[in-house]
Amino acid sequence: MAQIxxxxxxxxxxxxxxxxxxxxxxxxxYSVNPYVGCTHACKYCYASFMKRFTxxxxxxxxxxxxxxxxAITNPKKYAGQRIVIGSVTDGYNPQEEKFGNxxxxxxxxxxxxxxxxxxxxxxxxxxxxxxxxxxxxxTVSWSINTLDEDFRNDxxxxxxxxxxxxxxxxxxxxxxxxxxxxxxxxxxxxDFEAIFERVRDQCDLFWLExxxxxxxxxxxxxxYIAEKYPALVPLYDEIYNKKKRSYFESLEQxxxxxxxxxxxxxxxxxxxxxxxxxxxPVIVDYFYHEEIRGSDNTGKxxx
Length: 303
Prior knowledge:
Layout: E1 4-6, E2 9-16, E3 20-22, E4 30-32, E5 35-36, H1 51-54, E6 63-69, E7 82-85, H2 96-99, H3 101-108, E8 115-120, H4 129-135, E9 138-143, H5 149-155, H6 161-173, E10 177-185, H7 192-199, E11 205-210, H8 218-228, H9 233-240, H10 246-261, E12 266-268, E13 282-285
Parallel strand pairs: 2-6, 4-7, 7-8, 8-9, 9-10, 10-11, 11-13, 12-13
Antiparallel strand pairs: 1-2, 3-4, 5-6
């Protein structure tokens, strides 16, 4: 199809020989992105750097290319491998309801024996619960970094936090492992203890990741803080201009104390397997994840 505009988004298409890409992410394995671009348009999106490689001149969040790929005919070659769906897009963008690329991908992975991790901000994933149960070792992760819908609305165009939490419960109750990914943690704004209280009975893993302003969106975020949260300007200056770590170091301690309070396992830069007793999710500290060695996936920080 030619490029078309749909609900204010420029929709195109692109051919790719292989939908599977060897991953440089800390969790390793393969990355799969059924689309180019992401219409959630998160102001802090690290994936906006992809424009350097795709040739798009449009603003990030205003375009989406639907990928076409050769069908995966030997899914068993990925047995035991981790496959991350949605490292630089959301496979459950609203447009997935029309184009169905993620559903098609999951169907092609039937019988693979792969460890599949789906990263999303959508509740559309509940459409595929039947398929997720059939695939076996599947984890679904929702990004939730606030309970304040006004702040969420300022930051992205994805569905509401309430819809994400409701979807998480539905997937969890279906026996599928779930993650609440508190990402990114906005200093002085994100209350991860309040989020934990909301989701601890419906998630197996509770991940924490710091706000990283190495991308081109640094100015956008700092200008937003200056306008909406002027009292936090000194804190953001200390963290993101003066490169001081004391704030996130204190949050690490707070997370460990939270784990002790609720008798939850607490680990650093790891992804444990298996389900956990209700109310006892594994709290995982991914603060400064950008320092994890990607080559050997040891989960250890660079020295």
